[in-house]
Amino acid sequence: MRNMFLPVVLLVAVTSLHAADESTDRSIHEHTLKNGLKILVKEDHRAPVAISQVWYKVGAADESSGTTGVSHVLEHMMFKGTECVPEGRFSAIIARQGGRENAFTSRDYTGYYQLLEKSRLPIAFRLEADRMRNLELKEEAFLKELEVVKEERRLRTDDSPRALAYEQLYATAFHNAPYHHPVIGWMEDLDHLKLEDLKDWYRHWYAPNNATLVVVGDVDPEAVFRMAEGAFGGLEPGPVPQGKPRLEPPQKGERRAVVRAPARLPYLVIGYRAPILGTAGEDWEPYALQVLSGVLDGGRSSRFSSRLIRDEEVAASAGAGYSLYGRYDGLFLLNGIPAQGRTVDELEQAIDAQIAKIRQEPIDKDELARVKAQVIAGEIFGLDSISSQANLIGAVETVGLGWRIIDEYVERIKSVTPEQVSEVARRYLRSDGKVVVRVDPLPLGQQSETPDEVRS
């Protein structure tokens, strides 16, 4: 089963790649083939290995009602063979070379990777170039893989109260914007998905001029460019669709939803629509939102841990999350489980009170310094491996930010002021922009007899 999501730390985290050790070349080398394929190479000579990734700028955000999940299903089908590499051979070839391979789909992109000993890199290039344009999509294989994806949805979403809560959160928060749909698709759409839908998706989006090749490891950039030219240079570019803007109307009041599902504990998740690096009106706002997330949920000394869990004992757990990356506005997320004997309503009120304090009173400089140090250190340690470095480079490039923005992160975090943290809380964590989803537990083994309640 293919990975549907990159690990959260790699999507939310961002930092300077300059933190690698002295054997790592600190620069990223860029080259674009005549057919439009962009190649990004970063040297890391600590071990004789390399990771090769192909990123396509297409994901769930590009889908429309009726065909949701098509990006993820096609990701599965990309391992079902070409005329040159029949079904099952792709993975077998990589395994025989001592490598690992997999794939991932998100709202903003679809990616494929191989981690290999460095001399095997040309093999990965040839395999990816072959399936970029020569994939054989057959009905029998499609029907089998579609059932695999449906079962994946049942296990990861339908049988997971928290996953249902986040799915409902995004569907409630975004009515028109591209992030309304779940990445894995609605089950009703999967039930009616056709092979022709996948053929159209593959034909429209899988082209060298809609892809980025990222290589990180013990490599020579010029040699990688020559290998890429040999493997991908003969592929023809294609006409990539240019979609119309799908802007979200202003939210005019609090929105709430209830998910009733078999669960051991109640659960609360709150979202506020917030800009990311590509959409912010002022370029410091996303960095201030990142710091705000650290203030609330940055270890045992954070406000949620120290105040909601230990002092007030209203929460068994409480967290916050925010991603700088994406093609469209995202959500600033808050979540928690009430402590034994406390209610979801009490937990929500306690979270609201902490947000209100930050809006009204800028945090002191000592707390801010500690939070910044934790945020920066966490991201540097998170990017130690060549895989995490490649994931970051590919993500920022594919969402349109460009890899150069990586090197700005540390200084931009350091420059955030207490006033800016309070300001983004006032601007974006407002009551009229609040979206709340709660899980009301049913006895385990019992299914809800009524649809989820949604109020706007």
- In the sheet with the most strands, the strands line up as 1-2-6-3-5-4
Low-confidence stretches: 1-25, 449-456
**How many strand units?**
12
Largest sheet: 6 strands, mixed
Description:
A hairpin with a 4-residue loop joins strand 4 (100-105) and strand 5 (110-117). The protein is globular and about 65 Å long. It is built from 16 helices and twelve strands. The protein is α+β, with helices and mostly antiparallel strands and 456 residues long.
Topology at a glance:
Elements lengths: L7 H5 L15 E5 L5 E6 L5 E8 L13 H8 L11 H8 L3 E6 L4 E8 L3 H13 L5 H20 L2 H13 L13 H5 L3 H11 L5 E7 L3 H12 L22 E8 L4 E8 L10 H12 L6 H9 L3 E7 L8 E9 L5 H17 L4 H18 L3 H13 L10 H6 L3 H11 L5 E9 L10 E3 L1
Parallel strand pairs: 2-6, 7-11
Antiparallel strand pairs: 1-2, 3-5, 3-6, 4-5, 7-12, 8-10, 8-11, 9-10
Helix pairs in contact: 2-5, 2-8, 4-9, 10-13, 10-16, 12-16
Give the tags:
single chain; 456 residues; alpha+beta; six-stranded mixed β-sheet; 12 strands; disordered N terminus; disordered C terminus
Report a brief summary of the structure.
With 456 residues, this protein is of the alpha+beta class. It contains 16 helices and twelve strands.
